[in-house]
Amino acid sequence: MIQWVELVVFGLLFLLVTVLGFVASRWQSSGSSMDHLDEWGLGGRKFGAWITWFLVGGDLYTAYTFVAVPALMFGAGALGFYALPYTVVLYPIVFLPVLRLWSVSRVHGYVTPADFVRGRYGSSLLAFIVALTGIVATMPYIALQLVGLEAVLRTMGLNGTGFAGHLPLLIAFVILAVYTYQSGLRAPALIAFVKDILIYLVILVAVIYLPARLGGWSAIFGAAEQKFAQPNPTTGQPTGSILLTGNNQLQYITLALGSALALFLYPHSLTGVLASRGRDVLKKNMVALPAYSLLLGLLALLGFVAIAAGSKPITNNATGRPDTNTIIPVLFDGQFPDWFAGVAYAAIGIGALVPAAIMSIAAANLWTRNIYKEYLHKAASPQQEARQAKLASLVVKFGAVAFVLFVDPQFSIDLQLIGGVIILQTLPAVAIALYTRWLHRWALVAGWVVGMGYGLYLLYLIPNPAAGKAHFGGSALTLDKLTVLGWHPFAGSTVQIYVGFVALVVNLVVAVVVSAILHAAKVAPGSDATAGTDYHADEGSSRLKPVADTPVH
């Protein structure tokens, strides 16, 4: 049954952000044309501290985060809390690298991380690999924003089957596609203000009101502990735990660290960084962005609140299976007045639009600068680049919609797990290269190939008996499946580890060994267009030439 009050409130707030999306093309434009990739794809590179805080925060903390993290807590318990330490350690890790990347990109006019790799190593192949990896890893991420938005629509009663059941989602993304095409990065930057205000309002009200209504946190944790003690009917094992176990502690640590290393390798994260106007802006943001981690920790606990409230996920009429992503919308629907539930749904829905727009823009920038211009049209003008990026952003968005229309959403979730493993393989070429060029370009290519291949092979080995899957059942690998030239060093072990972390270590080992061999053979490492760059370049330096100085090695 359609929840009309919730739907009306959701619709009005959605209309508000739609208007903001269209007027954003004139916001802070100073008469600048959108027919330039710097303006359309990076907002003119002049976002200040507040805008950057909302933009990067809205980019990293997505609609899927708001439904998936508490859903994981609801289904598995303590393991789902990995999202909190990973966003705590994230900002100290990336503080210095993002400042260096911003400076060199501002001096040389780089729009994407692959642009930097192209300049740093003089290798179009390595840049192509980084660009392609970024696009492939981003696509399922966009699809997951649709999964989060559709969970909200399903809770409001829009749970039909076939194409008609997806029509509201399709309409929402058509609107998103149109105003992103017109306004570029300025649209999600402006909408992020509304999204984050709504999210903070909803979560703060929820974590104060709901525990008081349900008997306090002691009763909530007690209900969660009782639920997880019950065995899974398929496997006979406990469904989860409110504390980590001996088998998943290593997985928790490596998943948190691996996720922290991966997050700012995603092209959409770096797009928000490169759009800021100065190093001081980024410094302030790296200090202030952990405030979102506090919000995320409170949000995660709502998974246990849903257990205490007796919330049950809605069955997806298209698949006939319970959709655990609906658990938080169902909690709000059952515990709050309809009008406030509508506000909460709007916050989640708008939380899908902001990152989806940024992700599609970032993927379009990669396509335009590192594939289209590099291989298809080397003499492309700035206007042709901007036009190509706009068209590519449309293709990316509707490709994500096709995932939801024609593929089981669970497959998109599995792809996102794989996406984290994939994007981690660009860390040596993008992040380490900011500090040294000792790793040879051909060694980086070899490391990427081996790390990527081994990571995908390990993912293939992982089953998920509860979901009836023999392969690609998650990202947690038992150590007994690790082999070294046929040797099983951890035979019989049931301890789990994050596949992305293992694949990255293999990638780095190969890159170091091959680099040592190539240096010993005196193979030239290639040109470096970034040599002598002032890594402390700040505002207004986009027109500066590289400073004559000692290259960073």
- Computed over alpha carbons, the radius of gyration is 23 Å
Give the biggest beta sheet.
2 strands, antiparallel
Number of helices: 21
Report the order of strands and helices.
Answer: HHHHHHHHHHHHHHEEHHHHHHEEH
Please tell me what the overall shape is: globular
The level of helicity is 55-70%
Question: How much is the average pLDDT?
Answer: 86
Structural class: mainly alpha
Low-confidence stretches: 541-553
Total strands: the figure is 4
User: Which sequence of strands runs across the widest sheet?
Assistant: 1-2
Strand content: under 5%
In whole angstroms, the N-to-C terminal distance is 64 Å
Description:
- The chain is an all-alpha fold and 553 residues long.
- The protein is built from 21 helices and 4 strands.
- The strands form 2 sheets. Strands 1-2 form a two-stranded antiparallel ribbon.
- Residues 541-553 have low confidence and may be disordered.
Secondary-structure blueprint of this entry?
Layout (H helix, E strand, L loop, with lengths): L3 H20 L13 H6 L6 H12 L2 H14 L6 H26 L4 H9 L2 H32 L6 H22 L2 H28 L3 H13 L19 H15 L3 H8 L4 H10 L2 H18 L5 E2 L6 E2 L3 H9 L2 H39 L5 H25 L2 H16 L2 H4 L10 H21 L14 E3 L17 E3 H22 L33
Antiparallel strand pairs: 1-2, 3-4
Helix pairs in contact: 1-8, 1-9, 1-16, 3-9, 3-12, 3-13, 3-16, 4-7, 4-14, 4-16, 5-11, 5-13, 5-14, 6-7, 7-16, 7-17, 7-18, 8-17, 9-14, 9-16, 10-14, 11-18, 12-16, 14-15, 16-17, 18-21, 20-21
